[in-house]
Amino acid sequence: MEEILNLLRDNARLSVEDISAMTKKSVEEVKAIIQKLENDGVILKYAAIINTEKDKSAQSKVNAEIEIQVQPEREHGFDGIADRIYKFPQVKSLYLMSGGYDLKVIIEGDTLQEVAEFVARKLSTLQGVRSTKTHFILKTYKKDDIVYVEDNYDSREGAMA
Questions:
Q1: What is the DSSP letter of 58?
Q2: Mean pLDDT computed over 130-156
């Protein structure tokens, strides 16, 4: 299973026949393994990774990372408030963190004002939220082990006169 997962992590467009040839398993075995991984919730989705620097429709979007300190709920801990936060359509990612804050949220909006309004009117007003700190994402260089920038500069050191 791990071998097939690694192949799909690297290229989710591989056909069952290609995976079969690469793993020396039958096509039926590969289909069964992939079906089991999907049914068990190990594979959640197949998606294209888009370079937003080159996607004109995404270039105008504003992305922000928000650090949130919360008061954990009795009986539910952090899960109750996390459940309310990740249901907002602006929320693209949500993580429970160690360190100086409890939750990290990645959100997307059409404008800086829209992001600010979301934080001020929706996120910070949730019961249990003690504080937020917003950081706007200016450029992505690398995400999920994928480099988003082209190496098109001369890396040789300049000569000193």
A1: H
A2: 83
